[in-house]
Structure to design on (112 residues):
């Protein structure tokens, strides 16, 4: 089992920045990839950014150049640095480990 604990969401004005954190605990040896997804009201949950154990990253086109995913292996923590935030980035952001493990979600609200 893997447990994920997210933090760092909040309310920010357009153009501002936030950093999300996701601390993982439990049986982690089988987890090859972690990432962030988001879900806005009435919309499906979409991938935002992924990072593999080897450090390879992948981003949704809508966040390229503004968001950066990183990991601290010693702390089993994944971060999402979000800069130049836009109102359309408003969503609940979920941390994901592997294919089956999800965090509880953290709200990000960007005001115009």
């Amino acid at each position: 089992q893997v447990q994920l604990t997210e933090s760092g969401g909040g309310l920010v004005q357009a153009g501002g920045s936030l950093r999300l954190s996701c601390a993982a605990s439990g049986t982690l040896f089988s987890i090859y990839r972690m990432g962030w997804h988001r879900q806005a009201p009435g919309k499906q949950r979409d991938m935002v950014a992924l990072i593999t154990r080897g450090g390879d990253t992948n981003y949704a086109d809508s966040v390229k150049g503004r968001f950066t995913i990183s990991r601290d292996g010693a702390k089993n923590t994944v971060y999402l640095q979000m800069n130049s935030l836009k109102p359309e980035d408003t969503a609940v952001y979920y941390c994901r480990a592997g294919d089956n493990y999800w965090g509880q979600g953290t709200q990000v609200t960007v005001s115009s």
Q: What stands out?
A: The mean pLDDT is 95. The radius of gyration is 13 Å.
